[in-house]
C-alpha cells in the first residue's frame, strides 16, 4: 500500500462508524491511483424537508474530504424514492410526499449542500432518471432479485412484523430502489448514516447480481440534536439549520451540554484530533468548558457565514447573557391594547399558548425593555417596547 493510499484511508476513516470492506476499499484506492481514474462516490438524500441541518453535514463533510482526495462525488437527490418514503428507523409508515413537495424541497437541497461540497466538482443526479424508466415490468424484474425473508431481516421491519404493526408493500421496495441507484450509477463507494446500513448492503448485493464489482460502504454516526438524546431532526425541533442566521446558530450551539460538546467536536470540527485532545486535557485541568464551546460555535458559524459574523455572534451572545438586547430583533405589530401579558406573548409569537406564557411569567422568564415581569394579570398599554422570553426569544412590539 502506497503512502498516498494509506493517507487516504486515514482521512476516510476519521469519525466514521464502519468501513465495509476496508481491504476492498484499499484495493479500489490503489487501482484509482495507478489508473488515474477516480472512484465514483455516491450519497443519496431524499428531499423530505427543505432545509439541511448540521446532522446532514456529518456525511457531507466526509464527501468533501473525498472530493479533496480527487474522487468523483455524486450528490443523488432521491426525488423518486421520496415518493415511497424511507422507512428506516420508523415504527409507522412514513406518509409519501407529493411530487410538488419533492420538487420544492429539491430546489434548495443542492444549493445548501454546496455550502459544504465543491459544487464545480460535484455530479448532481436525480434517481427518477432511471427509476421512472423501469416501469411495471422492470419493477417486477428488480423485485425478483431479492427475497421477502432478506428484506424482513432489517431490524425495524422485524420489530414491526413481530408487533403486528402494519408494513405496506411499497415500503419493502425502498431498499431495492436505493440499491438499484448504486447499479445505475456504478458506484464504487456509498456513504450514509448508521441507520442506512441495511439499504447500503442491498446495493452491494444488487451490483453483484447485475455483474458489477460491489461498492464499499462507509457509515457515519448520527449526530444527536441539541437535546443530546434524539438524532438531530427538524421534526423534533432539536436541529441547527445550516442557513440559519449567524446569531441563532451560535446561540443554539452554545446551548448543548458540556459532555455533548465533545461529540460535536468529533463529528463537525475540522480541527486536528491532537488539538481536540489538548482541549479535553485543558478542561480536565480546570479550564472552563464554555471557552472551548465558544471556539466550536465560532468555527461552525464562520464555516457557513464568515469569521466576522462569528465574532459578531459571540458579542451578541455575551450581550444576551448579561441581560442585554441583541442588535437584530424582529418587529411585530399587535393590536388590542390594553392587552393581558399572556395574550401579548402569544400574539407576538414568543409563546405557543397563553398558558405557556403565564408559566414563563411565573418562572421569571419574561421581560419588557429588560425589566422582569412578575404579575400574570398585568395589562400592557399601547406603545413600543422589546419583549423577551428566556434568553433567546425577543420581539420589538408595536402595540396599538
From TrEMBL:
GO cellular component, one term: cytosol
CDD domains recorded: S4, TyrRS_core
Reactions the enzyme catalyzes: tRNA(Tyr) + L-tyrosine + ATP = L-tyrosyl-tRNA(Tyr) + AMP + diphosphate + H(+)
Motif 'HIGH' region: positions: 47-56
Binding residues annotated for ATP, in chain numbering: 234
Alphabetized SMART domains for the sequence: S4
Motif annotated as 'KMSKS' region, chain positions: 231-235
Superkingdom of the organism of origin: Bacteria
InterPro entries: aa-tRNA-synth_I_CS, aa-tRNA-synth_Ic, Rossmann-like_a/b/a_fold, S4_RNA-bd, S4_RNA-bd_sf, Tyr-tRNA-ligase, Tyr-tRNA-ligase_bac-type, Tyr-tRNA-ligase_bac_2
One of the GO biological process terms: tyrosyl-tRNA aminoacylation
Keywords of the record: Aminoacyl-tRNA synthetase, ATP-binding, Cytoplasm, Ligase, Nucleotide-binding, Protein biosynthesis, RNA-binding
EC top class named in words: ligase
Classification via Pfam families: S4 (PF01479), tRNA-synt_1b (PF00579)
GO MF terms held by the record: ATP binding; RNA binding; tyrosine-tRNA ligase activity
Family membership: Belongs to the class-I aminoacyl-tRNA synthetase family. TyrS type 2 subfamily.
Role noted for this protein: Catalyzes the attachment of tyrosine to tRNA(Tyr) in a two-step reaction: tyrosine is first activated by ATP to form Tyr-AMP and then transferred to the acceptor end of tRNA(Tyr).
Subunit structure as annotated in this protein's UniProt entry: Homodimer.
Name by which UniProt lists this protein: Tyrosine--tRNA ligase
Amino acid at each position: 500500500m502506497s503512502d498516498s493510499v494509506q493517507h487516504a484511508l486515514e482521512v476516510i476513516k476519521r469519525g466514521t462508524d464502519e468501513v465495509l470492506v476496508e481491504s476492498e476499499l484499499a484495493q479500489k484506492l490503489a487501482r484509482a491511483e495507478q489508473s488515474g481514474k477516480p472512484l465514483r462516490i455516491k450519497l443519496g438524500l431524499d428531499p423530505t424537508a427543505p432545509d439541511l441541518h448540521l446532522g446532514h453535514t456529518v456525511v457531507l463533510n466526509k464527501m468533501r474530504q473525498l472530493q479533496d482526495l480527487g474522487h468523483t462525488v455524486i450528490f443523488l437527490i432521491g426525488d423518486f424514492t421520496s415518493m415511497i418514503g424511507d422507512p428506516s428507523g420508523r415504527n409507522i409508515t412514513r406518509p409519501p410526499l407529493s411530487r410538488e413537495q419533492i420538487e420544492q424541497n429539491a430546489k434548495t437541497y443542492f444549493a445548501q449542500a454546496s455550502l459544504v461540497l465543491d459544487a464545480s466538482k460535484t455530479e448532481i443526479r436525480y434517481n427518477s432518471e432511471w427509476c421512472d424508466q423501469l416501469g411495471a415490468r422492470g419493477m417486477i424484474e428488480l423485485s425478483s432479485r431479492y427475497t421477502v425473508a432478506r428484506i424482513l431481516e432489517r431490524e425495524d421491519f422485524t420489530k414491526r412484523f413481530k408487533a403486528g404493526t402494519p408494513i405496506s408493500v411499497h415500503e419493502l421496495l425502498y431498499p431495492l430502489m436505493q440499491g438499484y441507484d448504486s447499479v445505475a450509477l456504478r458506484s464504487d463507494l456509498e456513504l450514509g448514516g448508521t441507520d442506512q446500513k441495511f439499504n447500503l448492503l442491498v446495493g452491494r448485493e444488487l451490483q453483484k447480481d447485475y455483474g458489477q464489482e460491489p461498492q464499499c460502504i462507509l457509515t457515519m454516526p448520527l449526530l444527536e440534536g441539541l437535546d443530546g438524546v434524539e438524532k438531530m431532526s427538524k421534526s423534533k425541533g432539536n436541529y441547527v439549520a445550516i442557513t440559519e442566521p449567524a446569531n441563532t446558530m451560535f446561540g443554539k450551539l452554545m446551548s448543548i451540554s458540556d459532555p455533548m460538546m465533545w461529540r460535536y467536536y468529533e463529528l463537525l470540527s475540522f480541527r486536528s484530533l491532537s488539538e481536540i485532545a489538548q482541549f479535553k486535557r485543558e478542561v480536565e485541568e480546570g479550564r472552563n468548558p464554555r471557552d472551548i464551546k465558544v471556539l466550536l460555535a465560532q468555527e461552525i458559524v464562520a464555516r457557513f457565514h464568515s469569521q466576522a459574523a462569528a465574532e459578531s455572534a459571540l458579542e451578541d451572545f455575551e450581550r444576551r447573557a448579561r441581560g442585554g438586547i441583541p442588535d437584530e430583533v424582529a418587529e411585530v405589530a399587535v393590536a388590542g391594547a390594553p392587552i393581558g401579558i399572556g395574550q401579548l406573548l402569544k400574539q407576538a409569537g414568543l409563546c405557543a399558548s397563553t398558558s405557556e406564557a403565564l408559566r414563563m411569567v411565573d418562572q421569571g422568564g419574561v421581560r419588557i425593555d429588560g425589566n422582569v415581569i412578575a404579575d400574570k394579570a398585568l395589562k400592557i398599554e399601547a406603545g413600543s417596547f422589546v419583549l423577551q422570553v428566556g434568553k433567546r426569544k425577543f420581539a420589538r412590539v408595536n402595540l396599538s
